[in-house]
Amino acid sequence: xxxEREYILGYGVDLLTKNEGLDFVSxxxxxxxGAQIATINPEMIAMGEKDEKLGEIxxxxxxxxxxxxxxxxxxRIRGIKQEQVPGIEFARELINICAENGYSVGFVGAHExxxxxxxxxxxxxxxxxxxxxxxxxYFDNEDAIIEAILEASPRVLLVAMGVPRQEFxxxxxxxxxxxxxxxxxxxxxxxxxxxxxRAPVIWQKLGLEWLYRTIKQxxxxxRIFPTLPLFLFKVIIETIQLEKDY
Length: 246
Ligand code: UDP
Hints:
single chain, alpha/beta, Rossmann fold, two-stranded antiparallel ribbon, 15% strand
């Protein structure tokens, strides 16, 4: 499947709807290919600018989902209307596709109780799901965990350890098994477990879930400030530059 990719500060963002993204992954699964999926937001780009290795991993992802509100704004500055695709929803629908088609799934990340409860809840909703691997995201024996994942060989692996840890982990897995589908899902297990609630639907619809979470957990403020305004400022400068060059 051909997809259109726009570059923001050197980072790719795929211009597609949730369903198009899911079709892309389904196609890869059917063709026995792997894919590294990232759900990108301005915080990640800011981290990637400071950490070369992280930046490289993010730039090399096969599918880069326009997750953050800041990404939607950045694309708007570029004159592109793009719907925001929340990574958590994308990943949940991917799990449904796995259940429907018998693709095995693995879950790594979050605290033990959280990952257990998340998988339990998902299994209640999709009893057919074949979960072949599950582990919390707090471990020191990374090589042994990777070994166990390779042994279990899930078709799709969901990694919820936050950025950048999950990206480094995904990169390691991919370097050992290229035909696996791996997606970094941040705090999704917390939500699926029921321990954390998503923002009310109206905030989700407005694309302001991040703002709701920041109001509820003010310690998150330092994540978006000054990152988000600085990011948008850089995007404006880059866009003016691009228009000049054109
Ligand atoms: N986490 C983990 N291992 C770690 C650090 C974090 O498994 O070493 C988990 C944490 O328990 C949480 C998730 O990673 O479930 C990240 O949550 P956060 O809200 O930070 O994610 P983001 O904001 O990046 O979506």
